[in-house]
Amino acid sequence: MSLIDGLLEYLRGDEKKSAAKAKERLQFVLVHKRDRRDVAPPDYLPALQEELLAVIAKYIPVDRSAMKVHLGKRDEYDEFDVLELNITLPETGRN
Amino acid sequence: MSKIIVVTSGKGGVGKTTTSANFSSGLALRGQKTVVIDFDVGLRNLDLIMGCERRVVYDIIDVINGEATLHQALIKDKNCEHLYILAASQTRDKDALNLEGVERILNELRESFDYIICDSPAGIESGAFMAMYFADHALVVTNPEVSSVRDSDRILGIMAAKSKRAVEGRAPIEEHLLITRYNPKRAEAEEMLKVEDIEDMLRIPLIGVIPESESVLFASNSGIPAIHQKSDVAEAYKDVVSRFIGEAVPMRFVSGKVGFLKRLFGDR
Ligand SMILES: Nc1ncnc2c1ncn2[C@@H]1O[C@H](COP(=O)(O)OP(=O)(O)OP(=O)(O)O)[C@@H](O)[C@H]1O
Ligand SMILES: [Mg+2]
């Protein structure tokens, strides 16, 4: 590299330094966060469950044990985190 | 027990075929009985890179269809004693490959080879699926570039969910990150993703770094894989082979610092 080239590159400065940007952008789109796979469920889950239960109980009489909340991977490619809410409704009876 | 290794990437044109040719040649040069299979049906290229294009009589589809025996279809490499090539067909029928046929071929090859290298086509469709389904190991070929990293990530997810090992609940495919077309100077100038960045994002063990080099073009023009010439790329692929067979070899071609002699005489 000639002196002039070197000087020009110096003057152009950070313009070409786009690697950090690449990394930052990739971290958003990488779906396969392998080390997250065995990580414990987030700690807000019990509170979330309580509050959901409270809301649903306003409309339908359900038992705490009749409701399951699960947050995790379910898609076949592990692509999405899925929040699953499973509620077994009480027998309505027809009488 | 023989090992099946898929060379895959999701993204096209990142260096899978180059890697398949050099990695299989490298294993054979180390005395391992090796066969390399082109799974890129319709777009076969491995034969050209290996320089055996004029000796292809039968291909993998002929064997699957029972029109040729494996023995008839295997082409002996001209540069390595222990290496054979199974060409892809030029047929445009994408469904010509099927899992039963591929399994039959692989089982037969297992009887006489130590290593079976599967050169995957790009994409995540049937051809790529067949190439990875039976694998014990995967070389995940990745360029220091956003779309390549994302596609590697995607193919890793698919292997973890869809491979035979995954479906049968056995130990997963052993994944190895191979960064190719790496330009250490530009990475150090922060113009390109660094090796550590890619490792950090994909989180699979690094097996090697292959520098970007004109010697690859020279090799493909001549039909002799780069590993047979004197170049950084040859050295880098030899290191990959050594690491694969369990030797501890320090990582090279990661830093942009050029030695004094190299600066004087160039690196080709
Ligand atoms: N280390 C390298 N340095 C410079 N050029 C390279 C290097 N590795 C591969 N190439 C070039 O990149 C191009 C694509 O390589 P190759 O055919 O191996 O990729 P591929 O992943 O098999 O592509 P496809 O997805 O189409 O099968 C070729 O022109 C090859 O010469
Ligand atoms: Mg290819």
Description:
The complex is a heterodimer of chains A (95) and B (268). Chain A is 38% helix and 15% strand. By secondary structure, chain A is of the alpha+beta class. In chain A, a hairpin with a 7-residue loop joins β1 (67-73) and β2. The longest helix of chain A has 15 residues, at 45-59. Chain B has 268 residues and is of the alpha/beta class. Chain B has 13 helices and 8 strands. The termini of chain B are far apart. The longest helix of chain B is centred in the middle third of the chain and has 17 residues, at 146-162. In chain B, 41% of the residues lie in helices and 16% in strands. The interface between A and B is medium-sized, with 21 and 24 residues. Bound molecules: adenosine-5'-triphosphate (ATP) and magnesium ion.
Elements of chain B, N to C (H/E): EHEHHHEEHEHEHHEHHEHHH
**What does the oligomeric state look like here?**
heterodimer
Helix content of chain B: 40-55%
- The order of strands across the largest sheet of chain A is 1-2
Overall 3D geometry of chain A?
A: rod-shaped
Calculate the terminal CA-CA distance of chain A, rounded to whole Å: 91 Å
Most extensive interface between two protein chains, with residue counts: A-B, 21 and 24 residues
Content-based structural category of chain A: alpha+beta
* Poorly predicted runs of chain A: 35-39
Helix content bin of chain A: 25-40%
Average per-residue pLDDT of chain A, rounded, comes to: 72
How large is the radius of gyration of chain B?
18 Å
Total DSSP helices of chain A: 3
Which word captures the global form of chain B? Answer: globular
Unreliable parts of chain B = none
Strand order of the largest sheet of chain B: 3-4-2-5-1-6-7-8
Q: What's the main sheet of chain A like?
A: 2 strands, antiparallel
Radius of gyration of chain A: 26 Å
- Return the average pLDDT of chain B rounded to an integer: 93
Q: Strand count, sense and closure of the main sheet of chain B?
A: 8 strands, mixed
